[in-house]
């Protein structure tokens, strides 16, 4: 799906991307430490060469794919998306990548599949944060199949036309722009098609604070802070907050996915 | 011998020196913020740095009694300056949150009431106010015994501050928990001392009554 085919106000508007410096130096990637600067400091230890992804579950062609073979023949594009962290800060990131749908089409989703589960690499020698039981490792995330197949859902391999840096989830990560950032799992080593809602890391750690859906929603507060506004990274010491948009500004594209659902229950 | 030498040296340092030294880390971090050297999200960074330094000063203040008890190194003269500076850092931390982070008065009470970690942090700040107000010789003289009892509030303040740090952390935060462990250890030392004081007081009373 080319970007032009998505006729929408959200994608037509001009977003001001954050600088490469900010995007690659302010990260949450707890496998490399819990401070924002830890990933940039420690992620060089991750060896991404010869990366493989296990594809299993309800698919026609399960197996261990090399990253190159999984991406072969798929069209890469640039997507400039808002990125809204659950901690109430945001960025605008120019990603490069392929639609997740294209990858799923390639491996052949079977009719019984309802969800897609993802797993991050779990390499204690290369990821010093794994020494601490901050979360139940490996990091896990998941989407409902219709969310995964949505044309906005991206598997990113680059930023600003350059290969994605390790601290941002090299060599391949998910980007779901209408959900809080932690849903966009990094450094993926496993994709599983399943008929059950998969267990996801932050939901396992604290279900009251982090729902399975975690759609950006200014009207549903996080129990410890308001989600009504956010601060875009990079505005300095006197940066003003800006209002958070429903579905992070992608309401026109994705609201249909949640028709009839109570978003305060399924937060 | 060594301890005596250290204590003699310490006595030569006037306490006002601390009012010159202790503000320096805070001023440096504010300067870094103003000159765009505090990273991509300077408001949070400033908030965190000031808050953490305040907590460290609180812990340092609590450490003075056990230090005297176990090593005879006497820093008691400096305790007031450390406490006053801790209050200054907490105030700065609060102001950064209120002015730069929240950016609006209408939000403040909602945040304080609705968010437990803010409630706890704010309670700690409020509990420090009477201590800051009575941190002068006149109050010590006027309040007498009551002054010592009042200033035991500092343990409550430290626990609230430590709890605030734990509650605002995402996931299992080792650093926040480590601060709390130290605070609780100092409190445990104090409580056993208070209990001994209470027991000997009761014993004295019993002797007096029984004769």
UniProtKB/TrEMBL annotation, chain B:
Cofactors per UniProt?
A: heme b; FMN
An example molecular function term from Gene Ontology annotations: oxidoreductase activity, acting on diphenols and related substances as donors
Domain Ferric oxidoreductase residue range list: 54-161
Query: Where does it mainly reside?
Result: membrane
Identify the Pfam families for this entry. Ferric_reduct (PF01794)
The alphabetical list of record keywords is:
Cell membrane, Electron transport, Flavoprotein, FMN, Heme, Iron, Membrane, Metal-binding, Transmembrane, Transmembrane helix, Transport
Where are the bilayer-spanning segments? 16-33, 53-70, 82-100, 120-138, 150-168, 174-191
Q: Does the keyword Cytoplasm apply?
A: no
* Subcellular location, record wording: Cell membrane; Membrane
Q: Name one GO cellular component term.
A: plasma membrane
Q: Which PANTHER family match?
A: PROTEIN-METHIONINE-SULFOXIDE REDUCTASE HEME-BINDING SUBUNIT MSRQ
Function field: Part of the MsrPQ system that repairs oxidized periplasmic proteins containing methionine sulfoxide residues (Met-O), using respiratory chain electrons. Thus protects these proteins from oxidative-stress damage caused by reactive species of oxygen and chlorine generated by the host defense mechanisms. MsrPQ is essential for the maintenance of envelope integrity under bleach stress, rescuing a wide series of structurally unrelated periplasmic proteins from methionine oxidation.
List the protein's name. Answer: Protein-methionine-sulfoxide reductase heme-binding subunit MsrQ
What is the source species? Planktomarina temperata RCA23
**Gene for this chain:** yedZ
